[in-house]
Structure prediction request, 270 residues.
Amino acid sequence: MENIKFYKYHGTANDFIMIEDRDKSIEKLLTQDVIAKWCSRKFSVGADGLILLQEDKKSDFYMKYYNSDGNESSMCGNGGRCISQFAYDQEWIAGRSMQFMAVDGLHRAIIDEEKVYLSMISVPSVSRDGKAYVMNTGSPHYVRFDNLQEIDIDQEGKTIRYNSTYNSEGINVNIAEIKKNLVSMQTYERGVEAETFSCGTGTVAVAISSLLDTNQPNGQYEVKISTKGGQLSVRCKKHEDAFVDIYLIGPSVRVFEGILYFSKDSIALL
Prediction:
């Protein structure tokens, strides 16, 4: 029987359960079923994912991320910004600048008064699937530009995510629209298997796709992206179809904290 302290954070309404797990003792307790129940909005805390803040020998900390279905997943950009804020709030680091390891490698983060700046992996190439752009920004993403008013993102996302091309590994599906200087987007996330109000790695994929789709020349850019949960920005350097020096920029909000009661037979929120 364990009483586990947790914290709830969100980044533009992409929400996460945060738990300190220095010695990885909590990780040993977790099963797919336990994580899925904790992330259930009907039975427990409710979240798009669960993140463990762990010790790391080569950086300030390690980010261990699980989707709401209970499976360990690829990189989560908004989760990366939230765990950076969490580590700062918990005084794991002395200053506002840090570096941490995640499943896709090393990330750097800077905390300012209102936003978190998070470095993302480089994108050496982008492929095409018909009119769509396909790439890995820490997680695999499909991006297509369309009229958002006419799209049912859950239905469209499910159709693409489970088609013969992507069914085995899964893919996150983003539908985006460009109006003037603002890009709007909606995302269907694998592992959540539904629309989320925001997706960090998806925001990076949409920003990159918008630069390619509008035939922008090589150079340094900052693209503003509107999600259902709020506005994010992506800074990057474009060279042909390769993108480097990528930063995901946006707010991270601490919502509440509490205790999760854990036993083999019962999972509840105190």
